[in-house]
Design a protein that fits this description.
This is MFS transporter. It comes from Aquimarina hainanensis. Keywords: Membrane, Transmembrane, Transmembrane helix. By secondary structure, this protein is an all-alpha fold. The protein has 14 helices and no strands. It has one domain (5-374): MFS general substrate transporter like domains (Growth Hormone, Chain: A). Helix 2 crosses helix 4 (93-121), helix 2 runs antiparallel to helix 13 (319-348) and helix 9 (198-224) runs parallel beside helix 13 (319-348). The termini are far apart.
């Protein structure tokens, strides 16, 4: 199979993985809200998807070594399918915690394997494009979830359909014979990776706050601002579409422009978008959607640019550690973001969403600015 075709199949598989997650970002919070859970409790449950990654990420390398790429993909996909089906019938808070936790564990393991596979297979000048398309597929998959739901009103049917989607990546990926041999240590060396890629790892942390926090609460945020459920779902969709379109362009440019400068610019623009989102929602839905497209593009650009950086800086033997550490920081940001956003929306109202992200992004800009000045 052609070396250019394999990355394309991997990217399509990533898209399929994320479609089910995109649907979950809508049906999980809305189902829990219908069961009279507050946004704080919803935030805690949604954070358990990320908590699984945080607690068990160091064992991802060991699992890949013991199971191999194919068995890891099949096992993780089947766990995802069962969890979605189970949560469609669940009303217990403990059930929500366990189901979302296991779903998050399987999803993170699947994405680490796919991401490392792509980083090793994509080579040459097209690598930046492939990594940009990979980042875009992460967002496009999530963006497609709410679009799919526009045609399905019954919540039980939504859960049933979504439980079938995790099977698709199995058929796409296990047919590829050219699988890389991944040589890796038995544990993930987060400290080592963080030492040599601190700015990029922290950008993944900030990206996690946005990529997990916004999809989890944008629908509720929109409804609180007087939008319909359909209009509120579009907020998530436009954010992800921006990541697909603008994010891919940003990643392609990172081959020619210093990656750290690109990350800085993307974070700065994101702060502006977060500050003016509330005004845009009140003034015009169209303006708010355009702003979310730009914001999503910046976040997608940060993720893909960070992947390109670690793919270039670290040896092949360190790629599992580097990619797993990058996913870990992304997940840590998501965990903190979802918990803080959910609590702040309960304490100070709907604008707790934007306040949390503005503060996080501003702190990152202060850090990267001080570091740049000290290196002069």
């Amino acid at each position: 199979m052609s070396g250019r075709i394999i990355p394309v199949i991997i990217i399509i598989s990533t898209f399929c993985v994320q479609v089910s997650s995109g649907i979950n970002y809508i049906i999980f919070p809305l189902t829990m809200q219908a069961q009279n859970y507050t946004t704080t409790w919803i935030g805690i449950v949604m954070s358990f998807e990320i908590l699984a990654t945080l607690l068990l990420f160091k064992h991802v390398s060991l699992a890949v070594r013991k199971l191999g790429i194919t068995q890891t993909i099949v096992g993780a996909s089947m766990i995802r399918m069962f969890c979605i089906y189970f949560l469609g019938m669940n009303e217990s808070f403990i059930g929500w915690l366990l189901g979302v936790f296991m779903y998050g564990l399987a999803t993170s393991m699947l994405l680490v394997v796919i991401q490392t596979w792509l980083n090793l297979m994509a080579k040459g000048k097209l690598k930046g494009l492939f990594l940009g398309l990979y980042s875009a597929s992460l967002s496009l998959g999530i963006a497609s979830g709410p679009v799919v739901l526009q045609f399905i009103d019954d919540m039980n049917v939504r859960f049933l359909l979504n439980s079938m989607l995790p099977v698709i990546p199995i058929f796409l990926l296990i047919g590829i014979r050219q699988k890389p041999s991944i040589h890796t240590d038995t544990t993930i060396r987060l400290g080592f990776i963080f030492k040599y890629a601190k700015i990029v790892m922290l950008s993944a942390l900030l990206g996690g706050v946005c990529f997990f926090g916004l999809p989890s609460f944008l629908t509720i945020y929109g409804v609180a601002n007087g939008l319909s459920y359909s209009e509120s779902s579009l907020l998530v969709t436009m954010f992800m579409i921006g990541s697909v379109s603008i994010g891919t362009l940003v990643s392609s440019l990172s081959v020619f422009i210093d990656r750290i400068r690109i990350i800085y610019a993307c974070v700065f623009i994101s702060v502006i978008c977060a500050v003016f989102l509330a005004l845009a929602v009140y003034a015009s839905l169209g303006v708010a959607l355009i702003m979310l497209i730009i914001w999503g593009g910046c976040m997608g650009g940060i993720y893909a640019t960070g992947l390109g950086y670690i793919g270039k800086v670290f040896r092949k033997e360190d790629q599992i550690s580097a990619n797993a550490s990058f996913v870990f920081m992304d997940a840590l940001g998501g965990f903190l973001g979802v918990c803080i956003i959910g609590s702040s929306m309960d304490l100070i109202g709907k604008e707790g969403l934007t306040y949390t992200i503005v503060i996080a992004a501003t702190l990152y800009l202060i850090f990267i600015t001080k570091r740049s000045i000290s290196n002069l």
